[in-house]
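Format notes (please read before filing issues)

Several people have asked whether sequences and structure tokens are stored in separate files. They are not. Every record keeps both together, in the order shown below: the sequence lines, then the token lines. Line labels are part of the format and must not be stripped during preprocessing.
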Amino acid sequence: MYKFITLLAVTVSAPVMAQESDIVPPVRTLPMEPAEKAQPTENPANWVTTEDYPNWAERSGSQGRVVTELVIEKTGRVSACRITVSSDIPDLDRIACAKLMQRGRFKPARDEKGIPIASRYEQAVRFVLPGAKSLPRERRFILEYVVDRDGSVIECRVEGLPEDVKKDPCDARPTFEPPRADDGTPEQRRYRQSHIVERLPLSDED
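Then the structure lines:
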């Protein structure tokens, strides 16, 4: 399946489906940081689907990630697309831009006066074969919290939360069974959990 990961306002060049190696100046000046950024009006995951995967690429097991820069007009339509990070498979790059321009719909950006304006956005498309899972992302963060005598979490903080984690773990505080000392009296307890995902060498020599 294909996943869209980020939408950020950036400055890009204007031509449609220009390759990463192309150096083409923008046709007009657009704000890098509008007062209100454009937002998709529907789930971006529906803009590129498994049905768009080329048959030859599926047969050969080809996969890849494409990063595009889009021009969003004040109508919310995508008027231009440029590849900034190629998948190294030209057909996947081409399909990513074509489908984003065809299906992408946005609530346009607005200036300080609330007037709709054109803007530029970055959007990534990951081409993954059906049934294949994305590799684990390397990450390391720490969750520390205090469980009160009634089992509720009364303090919570996170260290090093990755940018791709959309929900703060502290926003959904669970309720635990009341902690008790050895003599059975209720007590407070502080816990510290480390969450680590790292890629390891296959051997000590790697």
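For reference, the curators noted about this record: Helices lie at 55-60, 90-103. Residues 68 and 83 are 5 Å apart (CA to CA).
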